[in-house]
Design goal:
By secondary structure, this protein is α+β, with helices and mostly antiparallel strands. The protein has eleven helices and 28 strands. Helix 6 packs antiparallel against helix 11, helix 8 packs across helix 9 and helix 8 crosses helix 11. The relative contact order is 0.12.
Amino acid sequence: MNKMAEKKNLPEIRFKGFTEEWKENELGAIANFSKGQGYSKKDLVESGTQIILYGRLYTKYQAVISKVDTFVDCNGASNYSTGNEVIVPASGETAEDIARASAVVKSGILLGGDLNIIYPNNQVNTVFLAFIISNGKTQRDLSKRAQGKSVVHLHNSDLKEVVIHYPCYEEQNNISTFIKHLDHLITLHQSKYDKLVNVKKALLEKMFPKKDDDVPEIRFKGFEGKWGMKMLGTTKTYFTDGNYGEAYPSANDLTDRESGVPFLRGNNLSNGVLSKNGANYITNEKHSELTSGHLVEDDIVIAVRGSLGALGYVDKANVGWNINSQLAIIRTYKEELKGNYLIQYLLSDFGQKIIISKSTGTALKQLPIGKLKEINIPLTNIEEQSKIGTFFKHLDHLLFLQQQELEKLKNIKKACLEKMFV
């Protein structure tokens, strides 16, 4: 692909060999329009004729639809896809959400009520048109035309007035194929990530004893004997709250972002991992003044306000960071209870249920340290704890790598959508 100088109706990045300016037209001049008919969620059955309802464009959005998993018994009021149309929801919750489109590339699928249907002429590729409507200037223009408050509406008359830019059909095909390939890679990586998440979830259920059991379903070879239960507050575990002070300097207030100390809050914790993405920062001087909240290796950070129950494990990369008042630190005595073992139990479904059950308050839930101490933990010997903790640490690393690759692909797609369209 060659970078293009800024000119009228030219994208920033193009495939080699294409130099002509893109055409500009109102959508109404190059397409015909129709509406979906009949059918709503209450008409769905387990098997029958495939149907697309407008809600699918929110719950299971796909830029390109070739098959669906929703069915109805066909009645007289029917509008079938031809495999050469673009659909846009006619109603939704927000103006931004409603301005999205999907290309239907298979014929014979019923198109349900509350769908706007666009049939472009032979100048415009349906997949390309779906990408245009769902991104960039066209998407922003369309969202401005949506009307309503609690429910917003978009009509074919609104779609007809939207101005779109498009190159020759061959270039449209190249762009569409490239973006579809990215979508395919994203789907594959998302599937791998989801499978790993499910593997971990299943193992967490089997490698800790279930309620009223004293041994787990699965153990590493060489370990036997019954497990015990112990309340966290009766162990040698140390607990400390985070620090108040949301007004401390943020990353943007520091002359040099890296000269400060990450000051973590609830949204910096996810699935046992700490991240400084979007974190506030405090100066080194302020960090030194604070008597609590300093992270050391093997600490567990837990959200006690806001994102209640979110957890993060402190490894070497996070040592020396600090936490705000939304968070607390659980620091175990290593010869009694391994931190990388404890966090895995707290991340499990049963661990999360216990955490939530200990929360207090109504409108604003919180988890006082006194309640944290009441959590019962299944305990085995330190060697087996270490084995379990190390195993899940490796699994978490694989999840982290897969998530990074997924985010990288999503960012590449986002950049392409911004630079490959006018």
